[in-house]
Amino acid sequence: MNNIAGSNIIRFIILLLVQVVICNHINFFGYVNPYIYIIFIFLFPIREERLILLIVSFMLGLLVDVFSDSGGVHAAAAVSLAYIRPVLLKSSYGMLYEHQSIKFNSTDIGSLITYISLGTVIHHFIMFSLETFNITHILLVLKKTLFSSIFTIILSVLIIILFSRKRK
Amino acid sequence: MQQILNFVIKNKTFLLFLLLFSIALGLTIQSHSYHRSKFINSANALTGGVYGTVNSVDQYFHLKTENELLAEENKRLREQLLIREASLDSSFVDTTYAEGRYKITIAQVFKNSYSLPNNYLTLNKGKNDSIKQDFGVINSNGIIGIIDNTSKNYSTVLSILNRRSRINAKIKSSNHIGSLTWNGESPIYVQLEDVSQFAPIKVGDTIQTGGESTIFPKGIGIGTIDSFETDISGDTYIIEVKLFNDMTNLGTVYILENLDRAEILSLENDGNE
Asked: GO terms for biological process (chain A) (predicted)?
């Protein structure tokens, strides 16, 4: 139990720092940035209380907001992602979720990619909509969501696979 | 009472989500109005510390370009000095230098952003260096933005690459004024709006600050005219301005304090009453 809490706290800090120090300044093609801090929400222990996940996600999002001067857009998107996470898990892992026996580093890659892709697209869409905050720029929002999502999904899946293998 | 409690306990996840989401939404809406991003901004000890550490490493990679910029500026200042000395010799006094009094503070950019719709910079000077809201920020190439929030040792700058930024500017060759805005698309171009149809406009003309605001002195460079089109209403031009400054690469900047600002503002307020 303590071990899990400790590794989550370390993951929280590392992902936050990597996000604000490196990933926020990549600006691929001028505007495409990956938002890898949501890996924390994806990998949060499933058996843990949902309320804790909501609060921790909110704090994570808010800290990213503080670093990037963006009001509350990351907090809002992160909380939404944390709230709908059970639905995503159920739709991509099916029965495994019902039995509460998912281990992210051992299940098949297909389910993992579905799970991360769905979550990332939803998170990015909420975030960019709030960031632009203008219904007439909906095309810009969709364009940003698409490109940033591709970037985030590839990076997230790579990071999760790489680090889970090492830990074993 | 029992039922209300039961309802709360049954839906506690949803209610907590709703609460947190509305807090975040509130902060977002607040940040979309000018000068209201009071709570969530990067002018605090935590973010300043992290960005400061990163910046001290990052600086080494930009030493060369930074040196070139400074050398160039030195050259220009020396030229101005020579011209001034020459004009003093011929007993001709150039009065434009006496127009406003400005105090200059040198600062380092700790965080720069240019890819969002609303961009802010973080500088390493704050209240302890008597930096306040609404001071102008420039570098050797031209204007950068206006101080938005300050903490003890840090301050955030509302960049000209921000959709809430509106800065008074004029065409150098004539005296026609407009307001400088940004449409959120390219960090190389900004837009000069509300320029009268009477203004003679040529592609390549210089745009500079107008001196009508109390923030920037007159004649700070902004950019050159790249293209222009008539507004939908047909009365004004919208000019596409190519910036002198490379907003994606900023190191040392100057913060300008107008020492006459309080006097001018109180005078204008008296007039309004």
From this structure: regulation of cell shape
Burial class (CB in 10 A: 0-12, 13-18, 19+), A121: middle
Nearest C-alpha neighbor of A69 from the set B110, B107, B136, B122: B122
- The answer to whether B181 faces chain A, any CB pair under 8 Å, is no
What CATH code is carried by the domain that includes residue B165? 2.40.10.340
Chain B residues closer than 8 Å to A27 by CB? 114-115, 248
CA–CA gap between residue B185 and residue B243 (Å, rounded)? 14
B41 vs A69: CB contact, 8 Å cut-off?
yes
pLDDT category of residue B272 using cuts at 50, 70 and 90? low
**The complex's ipTM?**
0.86
Residues B55 and B23 in one domain: no
What predicted TM-score, i.e. pTM, was given to this entire model?
A: 0.75
By Cβ distance, the residue of A62, A68, A71 closest to B30 is: A71
Residue partners of B205: CB distance under 8 A and separation at least 6? B171, B172, B173, B224, B225
Look at residue B19 and tell me if it is in a domain.
yes
As given in the structure block, the two tokens for residue A140 are: 């810009």
CB contact under 8 A, A131 and B116: yes
Judge whether B82 lies within some domain: no
| Distance between B177 CA and the closest CA of chain A, angstroms | 28
- Domain interval for residue B227: 43-61+99-273
* AA identity, residue B162: N
pLDDT in tens, B48-65: 888 888 888 878 888 888
* Domains recognised in chain A with CATH numbers: 2-167 (1.10.1760)
End-to-end CA, chain A: 18
Contact between B6 and A28 (Cβ < 8 Å) = no
The answer to whether position B38 is within a domain reads: no
**Helices A50-68 + A2-21 axis angle, to 10:** 20
Q: Does A33 touch chain B (CB under 8 A)?
A: yes
In a domain, B262, yes or no: yes
Query: E strands of B49-127, at which residues?
Result: 102-111, 118-123
